[in-house]
Amino acid sequence: MRTLHAGSAMTAQEIAWTGQHGNEYNRRSPGNDEANYHFFKKALFKTGEIRSILELGAGQGANLRALRRLMPTALRTALELNAQALEMLRRTRAAEQVIEASVLEWLPIGRFDLVLSKGLLIHIHPDELHKAYNLIYLAAARWILIAEYYNPVPVSVPYRGRDDLLWKRDFVGEMLDCYADLRLLDYGFVYHRDAAPQDDLTWFLLSKEPR
What we know:
The chain has helices at about 10-20, 20-30, 35-45, 60-70, 85-90, 130-140, 170-180; strands at about 50-55, 75-80, 95-100, 110-120, 140-150, 155, 165-170, 180-190, 200-210. By secondary structure, the chain is α/β, with parallel strands linked by helices. Strands 3-2-1-4-5-9-8 form a seven-stranded mixed beta sheet, with helices on both faces. It has a two-stranded antiparallel sheet with strand order 6-7.
């Protein structure tokens, strides 16, 4: 399913991730399903039953495959732009629904018990972040899991020879400031030398209070 708007202009970051830069990332980082399984088991410990999941920027599906193992009855939806990653998502059946769309443009028809962003927000230009925050908020029925590189103040980080592809900041703090009905449930850090490693990610579990 493709939902990119006709004639819409991609950002410089989206052009990079849909092109050779994104393809090289796919080859370099296929994902660690076992480590991801242990990550989600810990990070989602304080949630209740999750029946539907949306991952934004799902890549090749390593996170969704781990969530399939952890929550085999939950319906999984993947949003992704890179063609190679989309092919892998479909081939491995990491998600029941695979959507080719931009996080900056797509609007959900329904809502999901859990919305996940893991290594996505860091690659969105700061001027466009509010669109991603709004999508996460609108799509979430109950829980939001954000796992990104944290910094108390916004900072640009050189990445693969470019200065316009990676930023660290307090993404969750900004979301809490924007949306009054979000609550922080849990958070943690996973070191790259952990027995079940992640890439030095700080994760935050939010709940959306029912209205």
